[in-house]
Design a protein that fits this description.
Layout: H1 12-37, H2 41-145, H3 148-161, H4 165-188
Helix pairs in contact: 1-2, 3-4
């Protein structure tokens, strides 16, 4: 710390020590005057006067030390509050930036997820179309290669199971078996 003239200011302990030294010096001076004057009243008065002055100076020095200590304390508190405010501002900035980044990441993830869902639906639609086309082609081949009596029986079976999917699956399996049997017979003949 420095005073108004940029000279170093001693701490509270240093000032107390200087005050004590001044008090001792004044006390010795007062005693010397008292000793030189002899037992007279004038020397006692002078000694009392010097003692009073020493007490006043001591009080003044003590007050100055306390004022400087309080000023230093106030400056330290101000700087601590400023540092605290700066730290809070930085924390708020970092928190805001983190929230912005999280929101951006969330939006990008949502966009990518939506795009993946759309692509999956497209792929499923294409797969359904291909499967339906393959099933039609297979049905046409089966119909072309299936003998007439088997087709008639199959037609009756289809009419019987319309609206009942479980029976339809069983009928489909029966048709498949019939086609396979017919193919084997052709191959042996």
């Amino acid at each position: 710390m420095t005073d108004r003239n940029d000279r170093p200011v001693p701490g509270a302990d240093g000032l107390r020590a200087r005050v004590g030294e001044a008090r001792d010096a004044l006390g010795r001076t007062a005693e010397e005057f008292a000793g030189e004057a002899g037992p007279g009243g004038r020397a006692r008065e002078k000694a009392a006067e010097l003692k009073d002055r020493a007490g006043e100076r001591t009080t003044e020095a003590k007050d100055r030390v306390q004022e400087r200590a309080e000023e230093a304390k106030d400056r330290v508190q101000e700087r601590a509050e400023e540092a605290k405010d700066r730290a809070q501002e930085k924390t708020a900035e970092v928190r805001d930036r983190a929230q912005e980044k999280a929101a951006e990441l969330k939006d990008r993830t949502r966009e990518k997820t939506a795009g993946a869902g759309d692509r999956a639906q497209e792929a499923a639609g294409e797969a359904r179309t291909r499967i339906a086309g393959a099933a039609r082609a297979l049905g046409e081949k089966v119909q072309d290669r299936t003998p007439e009596p088997v087709r008639e029986g199959t037609g009756r079976a289809v009419e019987a199971v319309r609206g009942r999917p479980g029976v339809f699956l069983a009928a489909g399996a029966a048709v498949l078996v019939a086609v396979l049997v017919a193919r084997r017979r052709r191959g042996r003949c």
